[in-house]
Amino acid sequence: MWIERVEIRGFKRLSGKFDLGEGITVVVGPNESGKSSLHEALIRSLYGFSGKDRRKNAGASALDRTAPWNGGDHGVVAFLRLGDGDARRAAWSFADHSLQLTDPMTGDDLTSTVAGKKQDYTLGPALLGVELDEFRQVCCLDQAAIGAVERSEPLQLLLQRAVETGDGEAGVDHADKILRAFLARDGRIAVRVDTLNPLAGGALDLADQRVAELETQLEDADRSRVEVERLAVELLALRDQRSAHSSALAANEQQLLLGRAQRAEEQHAAAREEGDRANADVAEPGISEDLELCVQTARSELATTRDEQQGIEPAAAVARERIAELERDRLAIEPQVTQLDPYEHVDDASEGRVHELLERRIALREEGGQQDSGGASEPAATSSVRRLHAAGLAVGLVSVGLAVVVTPAALAGLAVAVLVALIAYLRNAREAGAMAERESRSERTASMRAQADRNLEEVLEAAGASPSDDLDIRARTYLDACGKKRTRAGLATQLAKVRADAAAADEPLRSERQLAARVDRLADTLSGLYREAAIDATSLETAGRRFDELAREARTARAAATRSEAAAAALGAALAGRTLGELEAEAEQARQRLREHVEHHGALASTPGDETILEAAVESNRVEIAHLDRRSAEIDSKIETLESLNQSPAELKEQLAQERDRATRLRAAAAAAGLARETLEQSAREAYRQVAPHLKRALERNLPRVTGSRYAEAAVDDQLQIRVVPPETPNSVDVDALSRGTQDQIYFLERLELARLLDRTIDRPPLLLDDPFVHFDAERRRFALELLVEAAADGRQVILFSTDTRLADEARDLCDCRVIELSAPEAPDRDNHLAGALVGGVHE
Amino acid sequence: MWATFRRCLALAAERSVDVVTIGGDLWEDEHVTRDTRASVARALEGVNVPVLLICGNHDPHLAGGNYQRTSWPANVRLFDEGELGEERLDGVSIWGLSWTGSTLDPSFLDDFRAPDDGRTHLLLLHGTATHMPGLEADRAYCAFAPVAVRRAGFACCLAGHIHAASHRDGVVYPGSPEPLGWGEMGDHTAAIVDVTETDVLVELVAVAEHRYREIEVDCDRCESGEEMVERVDAVLAGQRDERTHLRVRLVGEVGRHCAIDRAAIEAHHREGLAELAVCDDTRPAYDLEALALQQTATGEFVRRLQAKIVEATQVADRERFEAALQIGLRALDGRRDLVDVD
Q1: Residue of B62, B332, B338 with shortest CB distance to A182
Q2: Same domain flag for B67 and B191
Q3: Which residues in chain B are closer than 8 Å to A225, comparing Cβ atoms?
Q4: Domain for residue B338, yes or no?
Q5: Nearest residue of A to residue B301, measured between CA atoms
Q6: Are residues B40 and B112 in the same domain?
Q7: 8 A C-beta contact, residue A423 and residue A388
Q8: Would you give the DSSP letter of residue A60?
Q9: Mean pLDDT value across residues B31-53
Q10: What long-range pairs does A209-214 form, CB within 8 A, spacing at least 24?
Q11: In total, how many domains does chain B have?
């Protein structure tokens, strides 16, 4: 942008119209000629006065200080040409701080486009892209305030934006906004800008959802398809089964029909045959079945009895021998018993007592006898002594005899003989002493014997013993009778046993007799039966043979009668109420069915089967076929349903591929856009880091020219503080330490370069330089002018203010520039003069 | 499709052929409905000559699959096994085998020898003949050598699988009767095979109703969408045909601010074509070398992404970096049509 013209209605002591060049304009004039006022008026024509400038401070505001000295209208009108060729007219009335911005070509009032808050206007920022302070910092060199560019935050942002942006670009910020918009919820992708994760309901999320949905649908479709194939296999298997059952059914039906046809035919033939049989003549049987049965029974019993008879004969022979033997025993024992019968009733209860008493009595009697004899006992003793003497003598003799032969032996015998004699002597002496004792005992014994006799008599009497005068005899007779009684009892027992054995041995003989009697009885019965059949029964054998002949004839006759009856019954059953003709028609009908079945299914059966089994099989086949048909219909229906409901997997795959592709493209675009954002951000940071180096390079490019080659190397820190390396030392020194001229030169270069940087983002602001070269020597001033000419050649408006008219000449030498000469004010009536001089007092 | 199918069968009737063979992929198994099966069976029944059918990789013969669920008419003989079966017709034997799963091993040709019985033996096979150029990706589909076919004693192989028609080295591909997409720009025919005593003569008769074509439109240095429309117009002159499916590929470097509206171009040029699809393969004419020299954020941006593109070892990474570069530059240009995601 550049200022074509400015009409100053009143600004300090300045007023008038000033046409400015697009390139370099040099405003020259002596001190107090109004250069600084024009410098400030140009600035205010772009920015006006802010609220701060309008506020009074120490009695006057910045605005007040620029008020016309002559009290006239306080304002300026600036004619501006924009970078794109458009024009603007900005008419400022500073007194009421109003602005009218118009498009001089169209007359459109554009004021509202620059109306800010609190009556502020944003004309400068809108046209140049920088605020007033930054404009002053970079684009304006005020002689009184020359120094390093202060790095304010807005300037930093401006520089950052400037270094971020290439020619004709929207800038990183704007690009980032576009990318964010592209990625954001309302954009094409709809992801979280920081993580690139899909936002719910956004394009990528919907694409992902659609993919998932289609995948599910495809899985379902594939499952359905597999299920259909499985069902189809099952259906085919069922159809195979049905086919097998149908074949079996046909075979069974045909076999059944074949059987029925044959049976009907057989029934018909049989019925005819039975009819014939039923109508055949039947003879009367001569012997009844009962009679035949009785005869058979009698014969059987007779034969059985005879067999038993023969069977018992050996036992009967043995029994007869045994009985004869026992009879002999009986005949031997029975007389002895009879002989002893008188003793049968002897009371032998007292036998023992009698025997005891008898023994007692005898003992007492003997004892008494010995006592009575006294001497009788002595002789006995003597006798005993004598026997001892004799023994002694005998021993003596023998000893003598032996002595002849053997002397020692004789001596021993003599000793014995002496000893015996001694013993006999001693015994005699003892006998004499005992004699008296004996007599006393004899008396007691006699008493006891008498008592014993009495006791014996009493017992015998009580036992009924035969009387006798002699007690001993009586007693002995009694004891003898008792003995005979026992003998008889033994014999009687023996006899009873013989008789019992005989009776037992007679059993086979009794059976033999009973069998013989039964044989006779049965023979009589049989004879009677034969006679009932009018057969002579004289000889049972002959009669039997005759009976058998007659019985056979009778059975034949009865069988014939039975067959006839059965035939009649069978005929009745076969006909079952029908006639033979109807039966024949049925048989023909069955044959016809069979023929039709064979025609339809082919010959499947050659032999009939069991009708019941076949009927069951046919029924089973039909049930199974019906079941298979139902099951097949169900499966078929399921398949149809699945096929009708199922989406085409191929179509789903196509849709899925499309959606996946779309999601992939969205995701790839998101990734690319995210990467672009990230890279742009990194690039912007990196580029900004290059501001200082960039400035350094620019300074070093021109520093030797403007410093007469004294300084070639510079250093610029991140705060844009500049240091230079003097030739005297390898260390850099702060610019403030240098001469004022060198400082001005370096700060001039810094502003020029910063302005060039800002050109990337703002509409190339004009440079308003108030005596920038006052401390430059001629050579360096020329170099500086050359740089400004280069800037002007790049399209930048440069307005130089100077008291030195040579500057205008030098500028003219270098380029086609405009020169405005301002006159110094005159002393007494200078105001009027100046006013007259300045109105239209512009010299080019 | 149905019209073309019926046209093929009508051609068979018109030429009074003795047998119709179908070399697999009669249908896309996943597309088949009950109606498809019934309609195909009915159509084939109407041919009134034997129809020999093998199954291909897209319609393998599976338990419970569509072939099993189709009630084939008596004149259709389906070679439903993965081993060669023979069908005799006068002096000609046609041998066929089907895909019964995801693969079909062509090694049967190494072991098989057609009997030397004076008959002419033909092979009905669904696979990729190895002499076919540019079909390396299809080698997985029962790749067989024509020499193996001859060595096995077959006078000719009636082949299916390749959708473009060809007859070479004793292998006949009639191709798919109709092209199925822009990838099928070859001929689509029915093959009339005449077996004489001494030779097997093949005539490929075009039966397709539609055709797919692709053209490129050079949009180099186009500065506006309007200019691009004009260029497309110029190229499409003479291409308009109601049976043609046309894909227009826009190529070249266009001006940085040239806006490309594919939908608008399609709408503008759609008339007179069966289908029109526009692919934008243009690139904005950024002078990347010049941009990379700028000491600005843009220059830094270009330099960084160019470095990444150079260093990228993966195609996907490189594509992402290139896309980021284009998107970033467009954004820096203030454009909002950063990338076509539709």
Answers
A1: B338
A2: yes
A3: 30
A4: no
A5: A683
A6: yes
A7: yes
A8: B
A9: 93
A10: A210/A659, A210/A663, A211/A656, A211/A659, A211/A660, A211/A663, A214/A652, A214/A655, A214/A656, A214/A659
A11: 2
Task: Flag whether B340 is in a domain.
Answer: no
Residue B48 maps to which CATH number? 3.60.21.10
Domain C-terminal end among B206, B239, B260? B206
**How many Cβ pairs closer than 8 A exist between chain A and B?**
154
How close B70 gets to chain A, by Cα (Å)? 10
Is some CB atom of chain A closer than 8 A to the CB atom of B293? no
Q: How many CB atoms lie within 10 A of CB B230?
A: 11
The answer to whether residue B198 is domain-embedded is yes
Residues B42 and B88 in one domain: yes
B313-332 residues touching A, CB cutoff 8 A: 319-321, 323-328, 331-332
Does one domain contain both B163 and B260? no
- Best interface-test mutation with B: which of A163, A164, A167, A169 has the largest number of B CBs within 10 A? A169
Boundary residue ending a domain (B206, B240, B256): B206
A2-11 and A14-19: which strand pairing? antiparallel
pLDDT of residue A835: 42
**Residue at token pair 């014999």:** A491
A139-178 pLDDT per residue, tens: 887 765 567 777 777 777 777 777 666 555 557 888 888 8
pTM across the whole model: 0.53
Residue A38 in contact with residue A831, Cβ under 8 Å? Answer: no
Predicted confidence (pLDDT) per residue in B182-202, tens digit: 778 889 999 999 999 889 999
Closest CA to B160 of B110, B206, B97, B100: B97
Q: Residue B279 belongs to what domain range?
A: 211-332
Of B30, B296, B334, the CB nearest to A170: B334
**Which band of pLDDT confidence, cut at 50, 70 and 90, is reported for residue A407?**
low
Q: Cβ contact (<8 Å) for A683 and B301?
A: yes
Among chain B residues, the shortest Cα distance to A171 is held by B332
Beta strands in B161-270 (DSSP E): 166-168, 171-173, 189-195, 200-206, 211-218, 241-251, 253-254
Same domain, B125 and B218: no
